[in-house]
Write a structure and sequence with these properties.
The chain is mainly alpha-helical. The protein has two domains: 173 residues, Orthogonal Bundle (Peroxidase, domain 1), CATH 1.10.520; 133 residues, Peroxidase, domain 2 (Orthogonal Bundle). The strands form two sheets. The protein has a two-stranded antiparallel sheet. It has a two-stranded antiparallel sheet with strand order 2-3. It is globular and about 55 Å long. The N terminus is likely disordered. The structure holds protoporphyrin IX containing FE and 2-acetamido-2-deoxy-beta-D-glucopyranose (4 copies). The site of protoporphyrin IX containing FE has 27 residues, from helix 4, helix 9 and strand 2. GO terms for molecular function: heme binding; lactoperoxidase activity; metal ion binding.
């Protein structure tokens, strides 16, 4: 009997060893060390949203941009240093990502209550969940216990983060690299139910789609006229427009808008244009509960993307602990 079981047991041991770095993520990770962690973050997000409703969208987006680049490790939050150009300068992030100060506020509140305990990577995950829940969307339990990265790289972000010009077949392939399904892609794109985008992200679509010199034919004409006014050909590309027609409420209106040809970004409207994604757009436009369930599933998978690199609990989300001195400064101090 034992000889029969032995190969099985050996197999089990290797499997456990290979996934050991994953196994410590759990819902009650801070229940002993920082029982107020989740209520503290939620309170900070609630206040940030009262100050400015868009903070919900901006905070939630951070989870996507952090987790796609080397896992959910708060690499996104690191400011540049003389030795390191981080992700904040990457094309998808510069002049675009915002609300980093809301994460800082949550971190400061947590450092007062339980110093050096709660990672910035976990704060992003909690904050994204809270932003959705407080905007009228679903609420869910998150797994915690992540570590914060020691480095960040602009190039890594530029190589991965998708352009708003991307089409559905490109996005299907990209998400598949993270083991995210077509359904996950469409559901997670439903995050654009809240928030805004810049004219920068849409002008080519209004005036020169795919180099054609013409607008994207998938845009409903009256919607296009409105966008033409908001984003004239030679206008200020930092002006922003709403990603759906109810930009502070997390609901399935985004999908209803796509069905009507009123998606803001090409990457949004393409989900309705392409057959492989259209059925999910239609489904979610008719079934808000189905959308919410699929969105939660997608956010959990996104939150499970792990970094294989060493980490720490940062005390300031913008800098690594014990930042080594820049060589020039070290030299100056030595004399
Ligand atoms: C599917 C591929 C995606 C593309 C190509 C994409 C692209 C974009 C772009 C271009 C913007 C506007 C940026 C600007 O003009 O400054 C934006 C905004 C936003 N994105 Fe995405 N996104 C994608 C998926 C996601 C996912 C998966 C999430 C979250 C789970 C997300 C959350 C958001 C939110 C909430 C905003 C509004 C942020 C704000 O108002 O500050 N996006 N996205
Ligand atoms: C989608 O985008 C990719 C990459 O930009 C491009 O190579 C491909 O031709 C596009 N597919 C369609 C059907 O437009
Ligand atoms: C996707 O799943 C495969 C098979 O389970 C696994 O080997 C791979 O590491 C996963 N990829 C990511 C990015 O999680
Ligand atoms: C439209 O895009 C094409 C290809 O990118 C480019 O060659 C052309 O100059 C653009 N036209 C205008 C009016 O910007
Ligand atoms: C938007 O504003 C920033 C400064 O806030 C500026 O550096 C950038 O060039 C502007 N971008 C566009 C697309 O107009």
């Amino acid at each position: 009997m034992l000889t029969l079981l032995l190969p099985f047991l050996l197999h089990m041991t290797t499997a456990v060893a290979a996934t050991a770095s994953w196994s410590h993520l759990q819902p009650d990770f801070y229940s002993e060390t920082c029982p107020e962690a989740e209520s503290t973050v939620r309170e900070v997000i609630k206040e940030a949203m009262i100050r400015e409703p868009r903070n919900a969208a901006s905070v939630m987006r951070l989870q996507f941009h952090d987790c796609f680049v080397n896992g959910c490790d708060a690499s996104l939050l690191l400011d540049d240093t003389p030795n390191m150009i981080g992700e904040k300068l990457a094309l998808s992030n510069i002049n675009s990502l915002r609300s980093f100060e809301v994460i800082d506020e949550a971190k400061e509140a947590l450092e007062k209550k339980c110093p050096e305990t709660v990672s910035c990577a976990d704060i992003v995950i909690m904050a994204a969940r809270d932003a959705v829940a407080l905007s009228g969307g679903p609420d869910w339990e998150v797994k915690l216990g992540r570590k914060d990265s020691l480095t960040a790289s602009q190039v890594e972000s530029d190589n991965i983060m998708p352009s708003p010009r991307a089409n559905a077949s490109y996005l299907i392939n990209l998400f598949d690299k993270f083991n995210l399904s077509v359904k996950d892609l469409v559901a997670l794109s439903g995050s654009h139910s809240i928030g805004k985008a810049r004219c920068f992200s849409v002008v080519y679509r209004l005036y020169n789609q795919s180099g054609s010199g013409r607008p994207d034919p998938a845009m409903e004409p009256s919607f296009r006229e409105r966008l033409n006014k908001l984003c004239p050909r030679d206008g200020d590309q930092n002006v922003t427009g709403d990603l759906d027609s109810t930009p502070t409420v997390f609901d399935n209106q985004y999908f209803k808008d796509l069905v009507l040809g009123r998606g803001f970004l090409n990457s949004d409207q393409t989900l309705y244009t392409f057959a492989a994604t259209r059925k999910w757009v239609v489904k979610f436009s008719e079934d808000e509960v189905g959308f919410f369930d699929a969105f939660v599933e997608g956010m959990l998978k996104l939150g499970d993307l792990r970094s294989g690199r060493p980490g720490e609990i940062r005390s300031n989300c913008r800098v690594v602990n014990n930042l080594p001195l820049h060589p020039a400064r070290a030299m100056a101090l030595a004399y």
